[in-house]
């Protein structure tokens, strides 16, 4: 449908086909209005017919137009054109002289130093895009353009990110390239900056070895290996520094990869400066140390919390244990009451009868004096006539006395005193 000489929107004349894939084709074109060479990315008609995808693609094109970075290909224009009776979407970008990394790797692999330099530059470009919320999702050698001076530019930004993960084109091909597709994109359809980190790790592996870590007869077989197989080890000639950068980027779990493209770029520069130092272990040690410190703080916090809260519950338990003790002490006041009961009825009524015995005890000292023979003659004359008068009053209180105190002794004394009286 497209070919050399096709003009889009009466402005962009296609001249040479640069490359293509499941998403569409890339052409070298001429801007008739401004008189400059550009690169035009033309989407397949199957994707253009989806209004949702077209809207997302347009939004991404606008976002890319605001992105300015030396490692990112500039975006000039976006539009729709009718070719052969079908509407297609296209994206006009900066034309970068040089050749793609794909063509370079077909000739020979790169040295570890050149690979780390390329990884650092591409990571910087990805970090700039991620900072604005743009995820490339199609990082591969065909989208990396190497300028004549050796600098690398990343192209085709936002195209894969605009489509939903796992969506298939009319030809049945997945939007991401199978050889560089992160495992989470094939399972959970997660779109995060970590998928670009993984794809860049695959590119670095290919630069060092000249081949992909996983291959197969079909894209499904390749995706399956991305999910379940470990990548073959790198050659022994690769130093520990570059080896660690690539190995960590190819982790299956996004949490175990480099935390960001910026961090991966810094690690690549350290590996370039000191290739013999295993860089991948340092971040792991720091992560392990951070987790250890966090676990220690969590354990100490829980212990302190348990010790802080523990006295409150025993106090309540003691209070509940003391409650039955208080109930058991209830009978002890009953003992005091029992002690109070006998004195209340016995002591109080006994005191009034004790007063008459006091009056009766007044004559008792007299019998102590009366044993002399002279005393019996004197009492009948003066003292004994008044004594019978006090005796009748005690006779009235005497009935209660026998109920409490036996009056045997006082009655004997009175009889002995009364015998000489009559």
TrEMBL record:
The keyword Kinase applies. It is an enzyme of class 2 (transferase). It comes from the Bacteria. Its EC number is 2.7.11.1. Keywords: ATP-binding, Kinase, Membrane, Nucleotide-binding, Serine/threonine-protein kinase, Transferase, Transmembrane, Transmembrane helix. ATP binds at residue 41. GO terms for molecular function: kinase activity. Residues 12-272 form the Protein kinase domain. Residues 342-356, 366-409 have a biased composition (Pro residues). SMART domains: S_TKc (SM00220). Signal peptide: none annotated. Residues 323-422 are annotated as: Disordered. CDD domains: STKc_PknB_like. It holds the Pfam family Pkinase. The keyword Manganese does not apply. Residues 324-336 have a biased composition (Low complexity). The chain crosses the membrane at residues 286-309. PANTHER family: MITOGEN-ACTIVATED PROTEIN KINASE KINASE KINASE 20-RELATED, SERINE_THREONINE-PROTEIN KINASE NEKL-3. This is non-specific serine/threonine protein kinase. It comes from Nonomuraea longicatena. The lineage of its organism: Bacteria, Bacillati, Actinomycetota, Actinomycetes, Streptosporangiales.
């Amino acid at each position: 449908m497209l070919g050399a000489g096709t003009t889009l929107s009466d402005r962009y004349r296609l001249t040479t086909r640069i490359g293509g894939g499941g998403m569409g084709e890339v052409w070298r074109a001429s801007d008739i209005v401004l008189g400059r060479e550009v690169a035009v990315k033309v989407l397949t008609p199957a994707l253009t017919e989806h209004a949702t995808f077209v809207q997302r693609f347009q939004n991404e094109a606008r976002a890319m137009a605001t992105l300015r970075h030396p490692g990112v290909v500039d975006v000039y224009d976006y539009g729709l054109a009718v070719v052969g009776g079908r509407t297609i979407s296209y994206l006009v970008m900066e034309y970068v002289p040089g050749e793609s990394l794909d063509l370079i790797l077909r000739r020979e692999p790169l040295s570890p130093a050149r690979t780390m330099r390329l990884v650092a530059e591409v990571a910087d470009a990805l970090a700039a895009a991620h900072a604005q919320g743009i995820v490339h999702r199609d990082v591969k050698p065909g989208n990396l353009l190497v300028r004549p001076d050796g600098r690398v530019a990343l192209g085709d930004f936002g195209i894969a990110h605009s489509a939903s993960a796992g969506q298939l084109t009319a030809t049945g091909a997945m939007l991401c390239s199978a050889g560089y597709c992160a495992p989470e994109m094939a399972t959970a359809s997660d779109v995060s900056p970590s998928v670009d980190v993984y794809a860049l790790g695959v590119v670095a592996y290919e630069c060092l070895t000249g081949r992909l870590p996983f291959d197969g007869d079909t894209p499904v077989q390749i995706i399956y290996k991305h999910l379940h197989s470990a990548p073959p080890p790198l050659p022994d000639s690769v130093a520990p520094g570059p080896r660690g950068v690539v190995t960590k980027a190819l982790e299956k779990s996004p949490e175990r990869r480099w935390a960001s493209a910026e961090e991966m770029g810094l690690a690549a520069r350290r590996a370039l400066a000191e290739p013999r130092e295993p860089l991948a272990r340092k971040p792991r040690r720091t992560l392990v140390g951070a987790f250890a410190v966090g676990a220690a703080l969590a354990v100490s916090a829980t212990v302190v919390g348990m010790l802080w809260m523990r006295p409150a519950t025993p106090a309540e338990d003691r209070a509940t244990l003391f409650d039955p003790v208080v109930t058991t002490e209830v009978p002890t006041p009953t003992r005091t009451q029992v002690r109070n009961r006998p004195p209340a009825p016995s002591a109080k009524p006994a005191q009034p009868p004790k007063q008459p015995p006091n009056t009766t005890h007044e004559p008792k000292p007299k019998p102590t004096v009366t044993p002399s023979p002279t005393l019996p003659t004197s009492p009948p004359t003066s003292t004994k006539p008044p004594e019978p008068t006090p005796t009748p009053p005690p006779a009235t209180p005497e009935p209660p006395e026998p109920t409490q105190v036996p009056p045997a002794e006082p009655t004997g004394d009175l009889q002995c005193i009364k015998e000489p009286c009559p």
